[in-house]
Structures are given as structure tokens and as C-alpha cells.
Amino acid sequence: MKIILINPPIYDFSAYDVWLKPLGILYLSNILKNYNFEVFLLDCLDRNYFEELPAKQDGTGKFPSKIIPKPEILKNIPINYRRYGIDENKIKNFLFNHQDANYVVITSSMTYWYQAIKEIVDFVKQILPKSKIFLGGNYPILLPLHAEKTFADKVDLIFKRSFFYELLEYLNIENIKKYNYFKNFPSPDYSYYKKVYYIVTRFSYGCFYNCDYCASKSITAKYENKEINKFIEEIKFLSFSTGSKNIVFYDDALFNHKNIDLIKKLFKEISKLDLKLKFYTPNGINPKFIDRELAILMKELNFLDPRLSLETISDLTHSKVDKKITLKEFEYGLENLLYAGYKPQEISVYILAGLSTETVEDVYNSINYISRYNLRIRLCELSIVPKTKLFYKLGLDESIDPLLYNNSIFLFNGIPGKIPAWCSYDEFVKLKDYVRELNSKKKMVEHV
Ligand code: SF4
What we know:
Elements: E1 2-7, E2 10-12, H1 23-34, E3 38-43, E4 65-67, E5 82-84, H2 88-96, E6 103-106, H3 114-127, E7 132-135, H4 138-142, H5 144-151, E8 157-158, H6 163-170, E9 199-201, E10 204-205, H7 216-219, E11 224-225, H8 228-242, E12 246-249, H9 260-273, E13 278-280, H10 292-301, E14 307-311, H11 315-321, H12 327-339, E15 348-353, H13 360-371, E16 376-381, H14 389-393, H15 410-413, H16 425-441
Parallel strand pairs: 1-3, 1-6, 6-7, 7-8, 9-12, 12-13, 14-15, 15-16
Antiparallel strand pairs: 2-5, 4-5, 10-11
Helix pairs in contact: 2-3, 9-10, 10-12, 13-16
The structure holds iron/sulfur cluster.
Iron/sulfur cluster (SF4) binds at residues 207, 209-211, 214, 216, 252-253, 322, 324.
């Protein structure tokens, strides 16, 4: 049986390869290979699919892109809409070379990227009319009714509860119950990539918090981690087999109140490997768990560009929307990182703009406060994630087109007829320019 796994391109106002890999289907690939399926993968966001595109030292870089027409509902947005990823002909060529595939499994990520899935589905139906097409990933889990309405007549099955489990069940695979547990996942399969600038993997899934704006709980109900020895073997294997030294933790909450001793043990074991690896986390880490010992271990491990989750300096806002940190707790973790030898400009802080409990002025206050430490600001524009507490508090439902949830537009566009804009377009641009200007004044550190 032959299975093709596809990660679609992106249609958006902006996108950048900040360690974007379709980790779910990379795990799935090795699971299916273990059951003797013939598996092929097409990652439409692979920057080196045909030619090597430049990358920064941390492996991040630009996707190839082109301007495309805006969907009707976005026609008044004053920003270009683009298609990011490998071009259509390369996708078609890949499919022509695999016309004997029995199944095509398409994954998905952001709900507001669903239109790129249509492109893939149309190509597959045209070139592989006899293959069964399955749709999985975050989009149908978070918006099952919308996915059903949009794709039910185009694909054979939509996995709306659990991507892996439903697929493996359909394929009649024995012993699938073990894949209900993350500890039993194999390592992700990077064998399809000609050049690997970075390795994305996870030590854990899930989070103990349930912040208003995050869907972690809806996607993974419980926190789970891999065994340390198994994870160390995974890192060793992936680094040797790909030649990459950049390891990216995709964990939702790498540090939490239950796992700090375990994380310290993990970092100590990785340090012993002496592989000269570099570590990153695109998802912010909670600074309140960074004591002196952990900060020193992070420094020794070569944990670069620590990205601290703060979102706002207002304890009042935290008490309303996430209850995950206070300003004092943030300062505690920061002090420990500085004590361990990190320079301020090596540390960045996530600030969230767009919460209804805050004004534009509040966001400037947070930015200015953090900036006094000479830290780098990473401004996150709020996007609406279905099945979050925020989604329900705002009275949203699946009848609304998720294209409107895009973080590039939500702040100044709102949801027309339902939720007013949080700020004007000019204020939005000014805020982003302000952060860019502040960051450019800080001497950024290049990591060799
Ligand atoms: S935002 Fe972070 S801390 Fe909050 S629920 Fe999501 S993963 Fe957990």
C-alpha cells in the first residue's frame, strides 16, 4: 500500500519560515513505515525542495512566494495576499510521479490557511483520481463543521477527533492504542529532506494551563513527555542523519511546574553528548520556572534566543486571561538568565497585542517597560483560534469564515458585523514600526 503525505502551501498576508515543519506527518511517516506502508512526503513549505535558499544561522529564512488575488471577504484589506511555498508545477510533477498511490493524506495547521488545502485537493483529484484523499491536522479538529462544509464532497475522509488514531484505525492497523500515548511515538522522519537547516521535535505534548487565546487543551487534553533516554537517542539520530546542529523544541510548554526536575535532568544528559548542538523554542517559555540552576543549564546547553512568554506587564490582565505569570515572576526568570551569562539582547519577550482587556496604549506600556531592559520585543498580533475560551467568549461559531481570524488583519479589521476592530490600520502599522525601530537599535547577536 502506498501513502502520500502532503503539507500544503500557505495563503496569507505574511509568512516566514520560523522553524516550520509538519511535525505531525513526520511522526506519522515513521509510524506507517513501521507497518510496511510505502510512504512518500511532499512538504510544500520545504525551502530546499529544488534549490537551496539562503538561511540564517538558526536555520530560519524566507519562503518563495508570489502575490495572488485576495478572496472576496478580504478584498478591502490594504496588504498584498501571497502564496508561500513550492510552485504549482513542482506539486503536479510530484503527483504525476506517484499516480499509483492508494491514499493521499493532507495535513493542515492554521484554520485561516484552509484555502491552500483546496489547491492540493484539486491537484490530487485531477492527477490521482483513483486515490482516496484524507484530510487531518488542526483545521478539521478546531473547525469540524467548517471543514465538513468545505471539503466533504471533495475528500473521502476528514479526521475531526484525532488525526493519527482515526487514520490508523481506518487502515486497520493492529495495536493502535499505543499511539494514544506520545511516549510511544517514533522519532520524526526527516529522510525526505535534501537539506535540513533545523530539526523540529518535541519532548512533550500539552500544557497545564488553559489560556483564553490558546487551543493547546483542545488539541492535546493532557500533558505527556517522552522518556529521557528515548528522546536523547532521537536527538542523536536526527542530528547525525541530517547533519543539522539546530534543534527546535516544538513543546507547547517546555517548562512547567511538574517537569522542571525532569527538564534539568534532560539538559544535563544532552550536555554530556558534546555534539555542539544549538537549541531553540518558537513557543515561548514561561520564565517563572527558570531558577538559577535551570538558567545555567540552558546557557551550558547552548540554548539560544530564549523567547520568554510575558504577553503583557499587567498582572490584572493576566488574572483575567491566562493566570500563567505575574510581572514579578517574569523578572525572577529574567534575573536568573542574566546571572547565567545571557546578554539582554540575546533574550526576547513575547508581547501580545489585541486582547479586548487592553488598549493600544497598554501594549505600548508593556513594550516600553520591557525595552528598558534592552531585551528584544517580539510583538504577537492576536489571532482568533477556534475552540479556545476566547472564541466562545466572543460569541463566535463555525459559520464565520476563518479567513477573518488571521493575525495579520484581525486587530484592525475585527470580525465585520460581530467584533469591532481593536485599532485602526494606521495605529497597527505604527505599533509594528515602533517595535521594529526599537529592536533595530539593539545590537543583535549572531550565533556561530
Ligand atoms: S499559551 Fe502557553 S501556557 Fe497558555 S495554554 Fe497555551 S501553551 Fe499553555
